[in-house]
Amino acid sequence: MASGWETVIGLETHVQLRTKSKMFCGCSTAFGAPPNTQVCPVCLGLPGALPVPNGEAIRLAVRAALALGCTVHPKSVLARKNYFYPDLPKGYQISQHDQPLATSGTLSFISPERGGVSAGIIRLHVEEDAGKSIHDRFPKATAVDLNRSGVPLIEIVSAPDLRSPAEARAYLLTLKQQLEYLGISDCDMEKGSLRVDANVSVRRAGATELNTRTEVKNINSFAFVEKALTVERDRQIAVVESGGAVMQQTMLYDSKENAVRPQRTKEESHDYRYFPEPDLPPLVLTPEFVAEQQSDLPELPSAKRDRFAAQYALSREHAAVLTASRAVAEYYESVVHAGAEAQAAANWVMTEALADAGDHQEQLRVPPAALAQIVALVKGGTLSHQAAKRVFAEVAAKGGDPRTVAEALGLVQVADTNVLAGWVSDVLGAHATEVARYRSGETKLMGFLLGQVMRASRGKADPKLAQRVLEEKLASAP
Ligand code: ZN
Ligand code: MN
Prior knowledge:
By secondary structure, the chain is an alpha+beta fold. It has helices at 41-44, 55-67, 165-182, 222-241, 287-295, 301-311, 316-322, 326-337, 342-359, 368-379, 385-398, 402-408, 417-430, 432-439, 446-456, 463-475, and strands at residues 5-16, 71-72, 75-76, 78-82, 92-96, 102-111, 115-128, 132-138, 141-145, 152-158, 194-204, 214-219, 250-254, 259-262, 275-276, 283-284. The strands form 4 sheets. A 9-stranded mixed β-sheet has the order 2-6-7-10-1-11-12-13-14.
């Protein structure tokens, strides 16, 4: 459908900042409280209530801006964005308009089509959230929950630099990863702590002009980003190919139908009548404060990925898996610092540890030192790989020292040549025919005989050592 066409997408991403209290009052931001229990005169918009900015929210916003390479302005202005909506009792949202907190940054990410690219970040500003209209709680009535009213947000506006729905998704996942690394948000779309609106237009491949765009809203999960934008792109292409023109309008995505519908037009014509918030002075940040936040930024995902690949001699793919989340990256490094060989540690973290975490609320249940010990037990021949997996599972579930756990489970490999020689003699005695065939040149019977030794030991024999003992006995005179 899209061949011969190029899609032009810009994203406006709202991210809830991880603060205990709201943007301009002391109310809690905890998710899931009963409706309208986390409210006060300020966030209810009662007359005469005065807002007081949340310093932690500003600090987190500055860190997000710096991590995106934005210029953080020493002075920015909080502004009223006026509009009427039932979930906005004040009749305005405190946001920023022509003097935002930060401007002109970039986000580098891997495009599925173009490889490494970077999207411009036009601006990043702070604002407060509105409340929430709930349409399915009471028949024929809409309820309003103001717990979310006044929750601190940043809005990150990208340039129209994204060229496909898949690319938009890649940008968003990279942004989410970066914000999670910074610890400024949990970026959970299902809880509404990350929300995205997309500006979408299409043009003939090779064209450079920007055509009329629509805004797609109501994309409420990462899984829907690509779907919603694909539906809207295809709709626009169909309109133009049938001789029509794309109208500038807001489209709402319906995930159940995988369709977009125009929002009722009377809600479209916005005149927000922005003006500086009279109850708040301009936001002034000292150069020292900004510099302190800059120097205090953690290592970001792409830098960590590059360092892992170089420092631990890992493939780009393995380095990417291990740095996908900051928690996993730090866990991996702890395992290595506890003495595990880097590639073996990577293999264990990427398989057993991540699988276990996936089943247990992302908890990495085996302590790094214990995993390093398991890796060492395999390397030293004390545990077979299979046995080590059982020890891992046991330590994950019940804790304990891996060596003790392995012994208690009877999994420690026998590497004592006297004991091994006993099992080998038993096997050779019991399989005289095979031994004779082996000695007359049928060397492929080694596999069978070794299997018998492993069986006689009930899996406990160190297979490498057992094979050596077996070869020695077979080579000596009958
Ligand atoms: Zn409040
Ligand atoms: Mn906004």
